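seq:
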Amino acid sequence: MHNDIPELPLNNGNRIPQLGLGVFQVDNAEDTKNAVKWALAAGYRHIDTASYYGNEQWVGEAIRESDVKREDIFVTSKLWNSVRGYDETKQAFQETLDKLGFETLDMFLIHWPAPGYAESWRAMEDLYKDGKIKNIGVSNFNQAQLEKLMETATVKPVVDQIETHPYFQEDDLHAYLETQGILHEAWSPLGGGNNNALTDPVINELAAAHDVSAAQIILRWHIQREEIVIPKSIHEARIQQNRDVFAFGLDEDEMRAISDLDAGKRVGPDPADEAWLKKSQTYASRK
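struct:
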């Protein structure tokens, strides 16, 4: 089961690999570099990091130490909530580039819709127009926040990276993004904590029927919903396994069985929680 990873078209004419590796909560150099190198060796060409994760430097080092050319890898990073304003955003972006050791970045996202994001977006638009960022987007924006952003934006986001998994499916936002030509990118695609879908009986019954893992079933479900998916792992075998989701498919009944698991249960914060968004602006990026 080792097929090419498809690329999805973005609304600006560029393309993005549909499957990538996420590195959230990978807090040391060895684990970060190993995960990135193993992913690249397995055929991944999409790595998702963020300034808040504190591992951009190690992602960049792993890419340089790999056998894959930089221009063949789609790398995403994100602007943390404590940074707002035009000049501040430009400075933070340059710090991200410096840590990664890159001349340009494939995609830069506003990490959360904390107050002041419109001015940060204006800076990102200028960096995009100057060719420093190839694609710009958002993360954790709901429909109302996207609509607010687009009242002043001159460049439409290419993606909205949001929490999505079998227990929290975001169907309404998914449909809205589709009408806007904004791709839906799923973080925490397998769930987490008490919402860990890997142990769900329905998921495991489907896994047994297809002779694959529970994680592969869930990732395949995301793929067939035409979402971008960025599962995190620091285990080589699991990284390889998560990548092999393109040689089998789920039929309509199987897709519906997973859709029926939606319980509206989040793993992370609610983007509509204004108190949390404001408080998060006091959280410094990890170093």
